[in-house]
Amino acid sequence: GDSVTQMEGPVTLSxxxxxxxxxxxxxxxxxxxxxxxxxxxxxxxLLLKATKADDxxxxxxxxxxxxxxxxxxxxxxxxxxxxxxxxxxxxxxARDTGRRALTFGSGTRLQVQP
Amino acid sequence: DGGITQSPKYLFxxxxxxxxxxxEQNLNHDAMYWxxxxxxxxxxxxxxxQIVNDFQKGDIAEGYSVSREKKESFPLxxxxxxxxxxxxxLCASSIWDPDSPLHFGNGTRLTVT
Lengths: 114, 113
Prior knowledge:
The complex is a heterodimer. By secondary structure, chain A is mainly β. Chain A is built from no helices and 12 strands. Helices cover 0% and strands 49% of the residues of chain A. In chain A, strands 2, 5, 6, 10, 11 and 12 form a 6-stranded mixed β-sheet that branches. In chain A, strands 3-9-8-7 form a 4-stranded antiparallel β-sheet, with no helix packed on it. The model of chain A has no long low-confidence stretch (mean pLDDT 94). Chain A binds chain B through residues 4, 6, 32, 36, 41-46, 49, 51, 89, 93, 95, 99-107, and chain B through 4, 31, 33, 35, 40-45, 48, 50, 56, 58, 90, 92, 97-99, 101-107.
């Protein structure tokens, strides 16, 4: 079945450091890929997405590129801030399966220290 | 303001009792979803619904039931058949399909003792 694998956390960085959170997937066909973020005490919200190979999603300084050859969608940010501390979820929608819901990874907690 | 409301925020029940979690949205979204969040396991899909009076099982539907009598509402019942009901439950909605952003509620934390 479809699945998403994320690097385990927590990831602890100092402010202004470079961030990478790895995400790889297994899916039928050509899925859409997403990053969602969950701030403390809240539900998730969409951070960025890419719907086809080589697309780059970007938002709030975060970027991720859909790499079909490596089945990856790694999240990057050049300079993190304390306010970026949250849990980040990679997700996919395998439209070819007929299932009209997202499959999420296990989440990666990011802690940014001043 | 439009959004999704989950209530209550915290819920406590005794083992053997059924409990219903509320989820209401005023975004005029067709699709609604229930996910369960456990530490280290991410979000797992329980049920989803694309239209009124129709819903589909997700990956962990056993021990749960839902209804979709109104477009705005998608309540989840955790039955006594659910072996490990203590968890954080998240409701979400989207315009139609998952390519459109999912809007999440703030969740209900259920504790069963």
